[in-house]
Amino acid sequence: MSGYAPSEAARRSGFSLDTLRYYEKIGLLADVERTTGGQRVFTDDDLSWLLLFRCLRDTGMPIAQMRRYAQLARDGEHTAAERHELLRHHAARVEEQMRLLQRQYDHLREKIRFYERLPGAAPGPAVEQATAVS
């Protein structure tokens, strides 16, 4: 049986071994193959799912919605419209969060500039400005 050992799947996905076990337990990952000795073996398909879960988790999607998406995908092509809508709604929430972070970042930078203009203010290490989100 070819595939990836749990440690390699964890390294490639950026998830811990505990998270991989948890995702399998709650049904995010379905039907993970096992060796005759019972060790999990992750396929390229499993890794693709893990990369998607990394994206969704890192952008704040709740586990319940991730589970819903995974179940819809397993249910077949007739759920494509619902999956599309779920991702569209999530993307809208991410965009709003990005706008909020940009406003907060701008406020923070203005406060830093205020302190840098004070008489006797020692110049601090430069904060590299990230690409602005429009």
Q: Explain this structure to me?
A:
The protein has 134 residues and is mainly α. It is built from 5 helices and 2 strands; from the N terminus they run H-H-E-E-H-H-H. A two-stranded antiparallel sheet has the order 1-2. The longest helix is centred in the last third of the chain and has 38 residues, at 80-117. It is elongated and about 70 Å long.
Question: Which descriptors would you attach to this protein?
Answer:
single chain; 134 residues; mainly alpha
Tell me the helix content.
Answer: 55-70%
Which stretches are low in confidence, meaning pLDDT under 50 for 5 or more residues running? none
| Strand and helix order | HHEEHHH
Strand order of the largest sheet: 1-2
Assign the structural class, choosing from mainly alpha, mainly beta, alpha/beta, alpha+beta, or little secondary structure: mainly alpha
What is the overall number of helices? Answer: 5
Q: Please outline the major beta sheet.
A: 2 strands, antiparallel
How many β-strand stretches? 2
Kindly report the average pLDDT value.
Answer: 91
Give the end-to-end Cα distance, rounded to a whole number of Å: 48 Å
Overall shape:
elongated
What are the SSEs and their pairings?
Layout: H1 6-13, H2 17-25, E1 33-34, E2 40-41, H3 44-58, H4 63-75, H5 80-117
Antiparallel strand pairs: 1-2
